[in-house]
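SECTION: protein entry
WANTED: fold as tokens:
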Amino acid sequence: MQARLKNPALIIPNAMQALQALANSAEQGGVPAQTLGLVHLRASQINSCSVCVDMSFRFKKAEETDERLFAVAAWREAPYFSDAERAALALTEAVTRMSDRADPVPDETYARTGRSLSAVPI
């Protein structure tokens, strides 16, 4: 199968640099790298970005177990994630699917994430 169009991040001037700057900013925010990797993988799954899923898997394989990587899509039922990781994954799903709901980020999701992130030194 051939792509219908080229990746916009590769053809729009400065787009890749902006994406890399955003990623670097997130990495410096105090959230553990493993949590950021899980978040990236889950958002990539929701967005059906096979390239992103593949990149997440390859980059995080050294830091993650197969069980955790394979279970990200079913994180609610899987026993492998901490409360902070679950809060981050819930927030990821809420903001990635904002157009699917009238109340995209429910108060409980926001509060749970806030409690988890308050423990992160920034």
